[in-house]
UniProtKB/TrEMBL annotation:
Pfam families: SPOUT_MTase. It comes from Heyndrickxia sporothermodurans. It is an enzyme of class 2 (transferase). Its main location: cytoplasm. GO terms for cellular component: cytoplasm. Belongs to the RNA methyltransferase RlmH family. It is found in: Cytoplasm. This is Ribosomal RNA large subunit methyltransferase H.
């Protein structure tokens, strides 16, 4: 299984990098996982609706350029479907069973994902109705992917 996590912006926080690196190391036993960072669009703090759409559009084009044509795309979005860890594991397992060996998880920037990225997505996933920093979502996502593979293999995991 080849998993890409395509995300907007650079990760600067050392503590988040350390946590992500730990889970990436653990994941090597289960899958090839890569994190692909695309540059965020520089913009002022206060934007009009049109300017927000332009920022999301530009970031979206960068994201779409990194998605493999054969990838099953899972967009992280507040309006996505909430799943349990077991449901996520089952979904990943089924994708592998039916020959989808490339999965791309997409995390947008602070304004979210463009319509183009959402249209390309095969499904959207929500971790909560709350808003989280996109940098923190990387760590949460990598941990949940690791947990999913432990569940798939029938290995113990913390409930």
């Amino acid at each position: 299984m080849n998993i890409s996590i395509i995300t907007v912006g650079k990760l600067k926080e050392k503590y988040l990098k350390q946590g992500i690196d730990e889970y990436l190391k653990r994941l090597t036993a289960y899958a090839k996982v890569e994190i692909i960072e695309v540059p965020d669009e520089k913009a002022p703090e206060i934007l009009s609706e049109t300017e927000m759409e332009q920022v999301k559009q530009k970031e979206g084009e960068r994201i779409l350029a990194k998605i493999h044509p054969d990838a099953h795309v899972i967009a992280l979005a507040i309006q996505g479907k909430m799943k349990t860890s077991e449901e996520l594991a089952d979904g990943i397992d089924k994708l592998g069973t039916y020959g989808k060996s490339k999965i791309a998880f997409v995390i947008g920037g602070s304004l979210g994902l463009s319509d183009g990225v959402m249209k390309r997505a095969n499904e959207s996933l929500s971790f909560s109705k709350m808003t989280f920093p996109h940098q923190l979502m990387r760590l949460v996502l990598v941990e949940q992917v690791y947990r999913a593979f432990r569940i798939i293999r029938g290995e113990p995991y913390h409930k």
